[in-house]
User: Fold PH domain-containing protein from Listeria swaminathanii.
Amino acid sequence: MELENLEKKLPEKIKTVWRQTEGIAVLVFLLCSVAAAIILYYAEVSVWWSAIGFGLTAVYAVFIYLFIIPFRFARWSYQIKPDEMEIQHGIIFRSRVLIPMIRIQHVETEQGPLLRRQKLVSLSITTAARTHKIEAVNESESDELRHHILELVKVAKEDV
Assistant:
């Protein structure tokens, strides 16, 4: 499999993980809205205040699911070249990071329960300055990609 010089997108399944993560946040907001509604009811305050909480939660959910997740997916990409790695992401505040291979100290994979269900792995690339993350790669490709990056790092360090 040729891994170099190709702009790669995240797997489509990452959108499911993002939806599930945001679904948990929406559930927490709904629970807070219900708690606020109960408190306001017993405090004999207008029910309209709790309706505002439910309305804001609904607007948040619609905005995240219809706009943020598709745009976030469209803006995420990474590219591996023999001498550097490029990671791009962001909607409003876009980030484009070029990581020289010679600066990479180690590459690590992580997998939480939501990623594991979708057979995805998060890849962390650590330099002396900070850790950069590719949010998701297919589980079946993760070891190959990690070893490929480490081989390029080895070659880059030998050339110095």
Observations:
- The first strand starts at residue 7 and ends at 9.
- The radius of gyration is 21 Å.
